[in-house]
Design brief:
Chain B: Belongs to the acyl-CoA dehydrogenase family. Chain B: Its cofactor is FAD. Chain B: Keywords: FAD, Flavoprotein, Oxidoreductase. The complex is a heterodimer of chains A (406) and B (364). Chain A is of the alpha+beta class and 406 residues long. Chain A has 11 helices and 10 strands. Chain B folds into 3 domains: 110 residues, Acyl-CoA dehydrogenase/oxidase, N-terminal domain (Butyryl-Coa Dehydrogenase, subunit A, domain 1, Orthogonal Bundle), CATH 1.10.540.10; 89 residues, Butyryl-CoA Dehydrogenase, subunit A, domain 2, CATH 2.40.110; 150 residues, Butyryl-CoA Dehydrogenase, subunit A, domain 3, CATH 1.20.140.10. Chain B is built from 11 helices and 10 strands. In chain B, the strands form 3 sheets. Chain B has a 4-stranded mixed sheet with strand order 1-4-5-8, with helices on one face. Chain B has a 4-stranded antiparallel sheet with strand order 2-3-7-6, with no helix packed on it. In chain B, strands 9-10 form a two-stranded antiparallel ribbon. Chain B is globular, with a radius of gyration of 20 Å. The chains are: A alpha+beta (406), B alpha+beta (364). Chains A and B meet through helix 7, helix 8 and helix 11 of A and helix 7, strand 10, helix 8, helix 9 and helix 11 of B.
């Protein structure tokens, strides 16, 4: 048992590290060009193009798709090395992590030829248009419709929680094309031009104050049938490809998020009626439980990497990752604010470390929902891993246009 | 990266599971509970014949010389099967002799352990609220008088490894249970399958096993073995509950369809896998003599007890009224949970030990 790279892994790591050291430039330290900054897109595009030219994009994609044709360990290693710095990468996470793999798994050769390389090199930005106000966890309940007339589809409806929609050039959208079929059967996937007439992305202000998401309105939007991804009525099957990639992408703890060390530093500097907070057993137990959750997930991911390194599939234990990470973030931040007593609620910028925890508290509420709620993820563990029967779904076999809530 | 058991350890785990599935489990635990024997002698003999007590003993002392990983998987399978045999006590004692024993001490005890002629047990408790860091029992001129309890598997054992105050502090001592001034008797505990005993020393000869540092080092290793045992018990309890939830019908549905039930099962799995990650980290640290040993062992201990207590308690709950009956197997996991929780020091004590290890590492 060991935590060492194999010889080829070590070689790849050294190569990636050397390239990053030589090219990371101004992203060596934290920058202000995060999401929401006016220069975020420009910086993201410059960095993506550099990576593309150097062969650090699409690392696991087949060479025929412009990828590097390497294994998952290469991708993991590159990401580990890149995350030591502060390069702007968030703009492409969804497009390259979810949308484009869906396009090259289910799209026609013409669509692949037109879209894949431009996405990979960062020229075009993509978003994923799935959730709707009426359908989040129950995604197959979406209402946005696409109606066919000759070779042209007309899309009308509304999507929501669409990350980066306002910055995107294209999106993959799942629409209801046959409401007379049961809800999973009447769906179809399309590629939609986000600059087309009738598409309007409105940033949606979150309770945390940020606006990473959008609500996107489609009014009489025309899409040519050549931009259908997969067969008519196969939209659910195609969407599952995307969602499987999403669960892999939204797995671990956000890099640079507060962890047990934050709690230790904080507790060492705070006095309670009974002495330093760090000496209190309740505080020490919370540090321990935070360590167990955070490091337990890291170690679980190392189990997966060990399997991948041997050329095997990771075990089902990977499914615990997000449900643990998000709630641990929330609990840690909440406890840390408590330790700060009356100032725990003050956000005047006088205590940057506390502000970071407050930000983490606000963000964690969203993380517990994004990419599968805590409840849906527990269903998945119970049903797919433990083999328990699925929830009763009274609407499952009913034609969509006849469904009534029970 | 190769963060997983070796193929050899995995092979041993499979064969141990196969054997114990066929020869142990709740029915054998019940037989033990209803009987008076201190352990299941037939099962113990079969386990000795399979070489499990010899596995970790070096070849020079008549053993097979396998690694700590093999001990970890054996502890896990013993825990899964509730086997009423002193295997995990012997594994922990073997580790103490390996880490802290002189060549003479190893030569005296390890061959007997390998052959199955010596059952060895370990104990720190004195029947009060003290922690593993303290001991009232004090050694003077190689003799001690006092009481240690509870000690799992004491009855039927030939060797006890206990803690006592020596000239340099609290450390391990060997007690030959056939010696003068040594008395053993049954002490009743919540665990009705795995018997514990009370050891009374009356000016009895005890022999230092290593020093206080060696005791602390052993404690980490013992905690890792205990974590694997707890993982096995947790997994068995969870599996039984999941099987019941797939079968039991209420309100016209299998109860496993209800989120109130299935989410508890999912939480059992989440806690189990978090604990497994830390236990595996411990197995690595143990084999590699890594600097992370204390933090890995402490985390494995705390995480495995959290998984076990949650799972054992919810196992009874999800079985409903039938789970609360004497005839149900739920009580075995519920009771064993408390036995394992008290055996090496409480979860809170180990949480504190974990944070101390992290503080030391941060300061370094």
């Amino acid at each position: 048992m060991d935590f060492n790279d194999t010889a080829p892994e070590a070689e790849y790591r050294a190569k990636a590290r050397a390239w990053l050291e030589a090219n990371i430039g101004e992203y060596r330290e934290p920058t202000e060009f995060g999401r929401g900054h006016a220069d975020f897109v420009r910086h993201s595009k410059i960095w993506q193009k550099k990576k593309y030219d150097a062969g650090y994009t699409g690392i696991t994609w087949p060479k025929s798709m412009g990828g590097q044709g390497l294994g998952p360990m290469n991708s993991i290693i590159y990401n580990q090395e890149e995350s030591r710095f502060h390069a702007p990468t968030g703009l492409y996470a969804i497009g390259l992590g979810m949308c484009i793999p869906t396009v090259f798994s289910h799209g026609t050769p013409e669509l692949i030829e037109r879209y894949v390389a431009k996405a990979l090199s960062g020229v075009e930005v993509w978003c994923q248009l799935f959730s709707e106000p009426i359908a989040g966890s129950d995604l197959a309940g979406i209402r946005t419709k696409a109606v066919k007339d000759g070779d042209t589809w007309t899309i009308d409806g509304q999507k929501v929680w669409t990350t980066n929609a306002h910055l995107s050039d294209f999106g993959i959208i799942v629409c209801r094309t046959d409401p007379s079929k049961p809800k999973h059967k009447g769906l179809t996937m399309f590629i939609v031009d986000m600059h087309a007439p009738g598409v309007e992305a409105r940033p949606l202000k979150q309770m945390s104050g940020g606006a990473d998401f959008n609500e996107v309105f489609f009014t009489n939007v025309k899409v040519h049938d050549s931009h259908r991804v997969g067969a008519e009525g196969d939209g659910w099957k195609v969407a599952l490809t995307t969602l499987m990639n999403e669960r892999l992408a939204v797995g671990g703890k956000p890099s640079h998020a507060p962890g047990y060390k934050t709690l230790m530093t904080l507790a060492a500097g705070i006095q309670t009626d009974n002495g330093p907070a760090i000496s209190q057993s309740t505080v020490r137990e919370r540090i321990a439980s935070t360590y167990i959750a955070d490091e337990g997930i890291k170690l679980t991911q190392m189990r997966a990497q060990s399997a991948l390194s041997r050329g095997e599939m990771p075990g089902p234990e990977q499914s615990i990752s997000k449900v643990v990470v998000a709630k641990t973030m929330q609990d840690l931040a909440s406890f840390a604010m408590d330790l700060n007593q009356s100032s725990g609620v003050v956000t005047d910028g006088s205590n940057p470390e506390l502000n970071r925890l407050q930000g983490s508290y606000m963000a964690s509420a969203g993380l517990r929902i994004a990419g599968g709620t805590d409840e849906i993820l527990r269903n998945i563990i119970a049903e797919r891993v433990l083999g328990l029967p699925g929830d009763m779904r009274p609407d499952k076999d009913t034609p969509y246009n006849e469904i009534k809530a029970m | 990266m190769n963060f997983d058991f070796s193929d050899d350890a995995k092979t041993m785990r499979e064969s141990a599971r196969k054997f114990l599935d066929a020869n142990a489990g709740p029915a054998i635990a019940r037989k033990s509970m209803n009987g008076t024997a201190t352990y299941d002698a037939d099962l113990w003999k079969a386990v000795i014949d399979l070489g499990w007590t010899a596995a970790r003993v070096p070849e020079e002392f008549g053993g097979v010389g396998l690694t700590a990983e093999e001990s970890c998987v054996l502890a896990e399978e013993a825990g899964r099967s509730l086997a009423p045999i002193p295997l995990t006590s012997v594994l922990a004692a073997t580790e103490a002799l390996l880490r802290a024993g002189s060549k003479e001490q190893q030569a005296r005890w390890l061959p007997g352990i390998a052959e199955g002629k010596v059952i060895a047990c370990v104990g720190w408790g004195e029947g009060n609220a003290a922690s593993p860091s303290t001991a009232a029992l004090t050694v003077k001129d190689g003799k001690a008088s006092g009481v240690k309890l509870p000690i799992a598997d004491l009855l039927g054992a030939q060797l006890a490894i206990i803690t006592a105050n020596g000239p340099k502090g609290v450390q391990l001592y060997l007690v030959d249970l056939g010696g003068a001034g040594v008395k053993t008797e049954l002490v009743e505990t919540l665990d009705l399958v795995r018997r514990s005993g009370k050891l009374t020393l009356d000016n009895a000869a005890v022999e230092a096993l290593g020093d206080p540092d060696a005791y602390q080092d052993w404690l980490d290793r013992a905690a890792i073995l205990a974590a694997f045992e707890a993982l096995g018990t947790t997994a068995a309890s969870m599996d039984m509950t999941v099987a019941y939830a797939k079968d039991r019908v209420a309100f016209g549905q299998r109860i496993g369809r209800y989120q109130g039930v299935k989410h508890k099962c999912a939480d059992m799995y989440i806690k189990l896998e978090l604990a497994r990650a830390h236990a595996l980290h411990g197995a690595w640290a143990m084999g590699a003599d890594a600097g992370e040993l204390r933090q890995a062992a402490s985390a494995a201990r705390v995480a495995s007890l959290d998984a076990l207590s949650f799972t054992a308690e919810e196992t009874v709950q999800l079985h409903g009224g039938i789970g609360f009956t004497w005839e149900s197997d739920c009580q075995f996991y519920y009771r064993r949970n408390r036995q394992l929780a008290s055996a090496l020091g409480s979860s809170a004590w180990w949480a504190d030990r974990l944070v101390r290890a992290l503080e030391r590492r941060n300061a370094a």
